[in-house]
Amino acid sequence: MDDELNRDVAELWSVLFDIVNDGEKRLASHFEAHQLTPPQFYVLKTLSENAGACRIGAIARDHHLTSATMTGLVKRLEAMDPPLVRRRRNEDDGRSVDVILTEAGSARFLAVQRGLIDQLRAVFGVLPQAQRRDIIDQARLYFTLFSQRFPVATRS
User: Fold this and answer.
1) Main-chain phi, psi angles of 82, to 5 degrees
2) I need a labelling partner for 87 at 20 to 30 A (CA). Which of 7, 137, 142, 156 fits?
3) What's the whole-model pTM score?
4) Are residues 42 and 6 in the same domain?
5) Do residues 56 and 116 both lie within one domain?
6) Residuewise pLDDT in 10s, the chain (156 residues)
């Protein structure tokens, strides 16, 4: 039993490593095609998930970056032609800065996301629906068990 478990763990580790490695390469290719770095894309993603606006400090915390580093990222996104984000003082707290997703930023984020989804659709499209559901269910089960057993420590 221990030998079987060890073999299964080694095989799963190998498969997961291949998936992550391949995914990083695919993401990098999509980001490059849309003139974005991975951190810039994740800023756009965070804004998109927060109705197009978020405090710069909150984005920095979400991505485990300093506010200074995030400010530099936001400035580069703001300097693009056309700008992908804009900044404004927070109306409730004048010391805080909100980052606002522009129409061009939203379009760029959606274009990258659409390209990735199209690839996934092409792969999943060759599988029967029951097999697709099984893959999703098994991935969800693995993630749930793993994240419950080994929660990620958060920084305060």
Assistant:
1) -80, 160
2) 156
3) 0.79
4) no
5) yes
6) 699 999 999 999 999 999 999 989 988 998 999 999 999 999 999 999 999 999 998 999 999 999 899 999 999 999 999 999 999 987 777 778 899 999 999 999 999 999 999 999 999 999 999 999 999 999 999 999 999 999 887 655
